[in-house]
Amino acid sequence: MRMRWSIFLLYFLSFSSAQVKQDEVFPVNTLQHIITLPVKDLSKEVVITRLNELPQAKPLISHGWISDGSSFNSFKEITGTASFNKINTRDKYCNFSVSTSVVYKNGSFEVETRAEFFDKFLSGGKPQTQQDVECLTYYQEMMKEYIPLLTEYLAGKKSIHENQDEILNKAAHLTAEGKTLEALKLYNKILASDPDNGLALFNKAQILFSLKKYNEALNVIHFAEKKNDLSDFDNVTYKNLKIQILILTKQTDKAVAEINKALRFAENTDPEKAFQESENDTGEKYLVPSDKTGLLLKSAGYLYKLNRQKEALGILKKYEDLIPGRDKKLLYLLFSYYCELKSPENAERIRLLIIKEDPSADLKCEN
Fold first, then answer.
1. Which of 34, 97, 169, 323 could hold 116 in an S-S bridge, CB 3.0 to 4.6 Å?
2. pLDDT band at residue 351 under the 50/70/90 scheme
3. Segment 49-83, tens digit of pLDDT
């Protein structure tokens, strides 16, 4: 692969060094290039990542290139486009713009690159002034800089991050196939070199929980919770797993303590963000509890399992107060929870609210 690059770059550098002269036809082909880069050692996942993240290509960004728009598509074929600018500090009239289109086919990148707006320096295909000559010379220099950096990004060896992503994807596929022990080995492999890898920790904790290795799962959760950059989703998932483990292992006092911690976390939310918009397959939009608000409902269920019905009902009342404008779907959910907690008077109260808005609603507690 490195030899192929060397041959290509030698050819490119010699080809693109045509001297620009005033009142002579400018070789526009020095600013338009089509190349093929073999990348058979890259997985499809890495290919998709590189094209999707083309605007953030480190070799280009670190050399002062500025991203100016992009697109990505992986439906029929994997394609990516990006535009970059390079500021000419001597003459901003000569600022360089370039667009690149990349298509992945049969283990190779087909790359088409074209400098933009260079025709403003030409009249009848020729530069007319010394400034035109200098600008076109700058364009050639920038193209000679751009192509090797783009090639380094697209066809360079896989980074540590990309190798980790491949392993994580493989582990996810194994988990989906029910091969959790094999997946666990891969997560351990990542954590051996990157102990703080959030996704590996998250998925390892869930696998250990599913395997009923509760003490090991708790150790992973305690370690992961020390991270400062946990999302609400990760925080809520870890709290749910921890509480379930403590309930299953009959550590009631610890479970209650963790539920109270979870409640303090869940109650510390902006009422305006207590619910978020979702969309079903037909495009219908509706509200669902946010991660934190969902934790309120879960906590009510946990307390009920621990025979603390009064506390559980108190939490449901707090949840009820957050529901905006008697939203029907949210009231349906609340009705089901009151039924689950065996609170017929509250379930009936919510049922009456629902049928007032929707008389055709047929609601009853199954238990």
1. 97
2. very high
3. 999 999 999 999 999 999 999 999 988 899 999 99
**Structural tokens at position 261:** 């911690």
Q: What is the pTM of this model?
A: 0.68
112 bridge partner residues: 34, 101
What the block records as the tokens of 259 is: 């539920």
- Contact of 291 with 324, CB cutoff 8 Å: no
Query: pLDDT category, 12, cuts 50, 70, 90?
Result: very low
Pairing of strands 96-105, 78-86: antiparallel
Q: At what angle do helices 309-322 and 344-357 cross, to 10 degrees?
A: 20
Query: Tokens in use for 341?
Result: 């907690």
Per-residue H/E/C for the chain: CHHHHHHHHHHHHHHCCCCCCCCCCCCHHHHEEEEEEECCCCCHHHHHHHHHCHHHCHHHHCCCCEEEEEEEECCCCEEEEEEEEECCCCCHHHCEEEEEEEEEECCEEEEEEEEECHHHHCECCECCCHHHHHHHHHHHHHHHHHHHHHHHHHHCCCCHHHHHHHHHHHHHHHHHCCCHHHHHHHHHHHHHHCCCCHHHHHHHHHHHHHCCCHHHHHHHHHHHCCCCCCCHHHHHHHHHHHHHHHHHCCCHHHHHHHHHHHHHHHHCCCHHHCEEEEECCCCCEEEEECHHHHHHHHHHHHHHHCCCHHHHHHHHHHHHHHCCCCCHHHHHHHHHHHHHCCCHHHHHHHHHHHHHHCCCCCCCCCC
List CB contacts of 148: < 8 A, sequence separation 6 or more. 9, 12
Q: How many residues does the chain have?
A: 367
pLDDT averaged over every residue in the chain: 90
| 8: pLDDT strictly greater than 90 | no
Distance of alpha carbon 276 from alpha carbon 296, whole angstroms? 15
The angle formed by the CA atoms of residues 173, 178 and 183, to the nearest 5 degrees, is 55
Residue 322 contacts residue 293 (beta carbons within 8 Å): yes
Q: Residue 239 has which token pair? A: 């709290």
Q: Report the alpha-carbon distance of residue 195 to residue 88 in Å, rounded.
A: 44
Give the chain's end-to-end CA distance (angstroms, integer). Answer: 67
pLDDT of residue 17: 55
Q: Which amino acid is at 156?
A: G
Rounded-to-integer distance, Cα 163 and Cα 185, Å: 15
